[in-house]
Design goal:
mainly alpha; 12 helices; 0% strand; disordered N terminus
């Protein structure tokens, strides 16, 4: 009997331990208690956990509410602004995402956080100007050029120019891809486009001029 009581007690302790939430888990009974999360003193990570749980289940209004709450409540937190920016970008709200990445950059302390916020802000600038499809094609083309896949680079950079025909960067790297693949005539055409349409003080203009001089 005594042994049975001990077993029951051990079982109760085991189940109680399993029922305890982790340091950052959301208590189930509080998940929909907005007043609880609006209260002062709720940790940032707890609010972000709730935002994420709503995000993955498709409750986008709720997710946005809690990401915004985190950024407002913890206005000096890079993590809060970065999380909001990433969510806004995912949902296609580019202007708002750009502003949030700027806030993240303003409060970032580490060099890596600053570089990350700056990079994503610049990516959004490109998408706002040239369109997401063109940017994706350009990024893939540049990456393939960097590893020597010149045929793929030519295809992808040409694809970017189909929807963004005046994008100087794409013309320049397409020229470099043509040159590296042995198509000198096409490379010269792309370099001439850069020199005819870019600012003479720009790095791309100078790069195109240098490449043309090397090809003579």
């Amino acid at each position: 009997m005594k042994r049975l009581s001990c077993l029951i007690l051990l079982g109760f302790v085991f189940l109680s331990a399993r029922a305890q939430p982790s340091a950052y888990s959301i208590p189930p009974q509080q998940e929909y208690d907005t007043e609880f999360y609006l209260a002062e003193g709720v940790p940032l990570q707890t609010i972000l956990e709730l935002a994420w749980s709503k995000r993955v289940r498709g409750y986008h209004d709720g997710a946005l509410f809690y990401y915004q709450l985190a950024a407002q409540r913890y206005s000096q937190s890079y993590e809060a602004h970065n999380a909001l920016a990433a969510y806004l970008y995912e949902r296609g709200h580019l202007e708002a995402a750009k502003q949030s990445y700027q806030h993240a950059l303003n409060v970032a302390i580490s060099a890596s956080d600053q570089a990350s916020a700056r990079y994503f802000g610049e990516q959004i600038d490109k998408e706002l100007r040239w369109g997401k499809a063109a940017v994706n094609a350009y990024d893939s083309g540049y990456a393939n050029f960097a590893v020597g896949n010149y045929s793929l680079a030519i295809n992808q950079l040409s694809e970017a120019l189909r929807t963004a025909p005046s994008w100087i960067n794409a013309h320049y790297w397409l020229g470099r891809s043509y040159e590296s693949s042995g198509d000198r005539a096409s490379a010269i055409q792309e370099y001439n486009y850069v020199m005819n349409n870019d600012n003479p003080d720009s790095d791309l203009y100078k790069g195109a001029r240098w490449q043309l001089m090397q090809m003579r």
